[in-house]
Amino acid sequence: MWSVAPTIATLAAISKGVGWAVLPVFMSGFQPFLIFVSSFLIKNSYWKLSKFDYGCGILSILSLILWGVTRSPDVAILFAIASDGFAVIPTVVKAWNHPGTEDVSPFLSGEFNTITAFFAITSWSFAAVAFPTYLTIANLFLIGSILLRRRR
Prior knowledge:
Largest sheet: none
Radius of gyration: 15 Å
Number of strands: 0
Number of helices: 6
Structural class: mainly alpha
Number of domains: 1
Mean pLDDT: 81
Oligomer: single chain
Strand content: under 5%
Shape: globular
Low-confidence stretches: none
């Protein structure tokens, strides 16, 4: 789900005329896609889905369906944020409960990647600013969850 929502937000932002500022949003979806594919290629990788994960996944998919009904680029971005947010929750919970299982570096690079979007924005519209703002907050929350729990 972390790949789908940013891809939809990217396409919606492009349809609203957002230029290179959308690249970090695209990359925020492309990186999880590569990790997902890698999890099948690396023999010792392990992940297990719980009822909580499925619940967040269902809410994430519901957000995408609601976007499909509206067909508005701004609404698409809003629902893509909701969809991605529901997909983030299980990782935050995992990072909090098992901080040793998450590495902070992908989220640090994601934070750097997202911040670059703000330097590329030429038109400060909802389509240009919304997803990068959400990603900035989500990455900071993930980084904080991992580092705060490790300190304890």
